[in-house]
Amino acid sequence: MLDADFFRRWMTATAASVDREADRLTALDSPIGDADHGSNLRRGFTAVAAALDEEAPDTPGAVLLLAAKQLISKVGGASGPLYGTLLRRTGKALGDAPEVSEEEFARALREGVEAVMALGGAAPGDKTMIDALLPAVDALGDSFAAARTAAEQGALATTPLQAHKGRASYLGERSIGHQDPGATSSSLLITALAEAHGE
Ligand code: ADP
Ligand code: MG
After folding, report:
1. Which domain holds residue 157?
2. How far is CA 44 from CA 50, 51, 81, 93, 150, in A?
3. Residue 193 pLDDT > 90
4. Residue 3 phi/psi, 5° resolution?
């Protein structure tokens, strides 16, 4: 079973990873964006870690709702509301149970990813965070380690794609040949999830 502490560890591991990788995320956002993805997410996840420290929510759902609130209020740019929606919808789906099963979590995360697709209008292959998140959710039924591998491969596989959503889509064919920053940060999020699970 997954308890509030597991979800807190997931969020703090994500914050640490985003902090380490912020420069790389911003560099990826430079040729096909506006070079702010790393700084956007660093600001957001630093706030998430601080809020979790201060408030210590005691259910999985409450941890994710608090994290979502921070991301929505602190991250300028498209990725804030999108990641906020991912965690808010996932957290809502978990309700107020003190512990959730891995199957319940996998179902909740799928709802979260579907909410991101509804909000942003992106489909698989549009060169967005969805290209890492959806394969990860599909693989989560097997294991957390499989989800991490799927997210990493999904992020790498965005390089030859043309962007059809977000700022990178303004470049048309010139977006081809660059790895998507949001798919890359989503792979960090799922890697942190596997880490929190001890894999
Ligand atoms: P902005 O584009 O506003 O500067 P960020 O740089 O923080 O925001 O985030 C860019 C990332 O957000 C992209 O690499 C992409 O993965 C993701 N993204 C942008 N628009 C969408 C969308 N409509 N649906 C899903 N993801 C999106
Ligand atoms: Mg940007």
Report:
1. 2-196
2. 10, 11, 11, 22, 25
3. yes
4. -110, 180
Q: Which residue has its alpha carbon closest to ligand 1 atom 22?
A: 120
Q: What is the mean pLDDT of residues 35-42?
A: 97
Which of 42, 85, 128 to mutate for ligand 1's pocket (most ligand atoms within 8 Å of CB)? 128
Count: domains in the chain: 1
What's the predicted TM-score (pTM) here?
Answer: 0.98
Position 76 pLDDT exceeds 90: no
Q: Per-residue confidence at 24, pLDDT binned at 50, 70, 90?
A: very high
Q: Please provide the size of the chain in residues.
A: 199
Q: Which residues of the chain form beta strands (DSSP E)?
A: 2-3, 99-100
CATH number of the domain to which 49 belongs? 1.25.40.340
Between CA 168 and CA 165 the distance in angstroms is: 7
Among the listed residues 33, 24, 138, the one whose alpha carbon sits nearest the alpha carbon of residue 79: 33
Ligand 1 pocket, mutate which of 40, 119, 165, 179 (most atoms under 8 A from CB): 165
Whole-number pLDDT of residue 7? 98
Q: Which ligand is nearest to the CA of 184?
A: 1
Report residue 16 as tokens.
Answer: 């640490």
**What pLDDT does residue 23 have?**
98
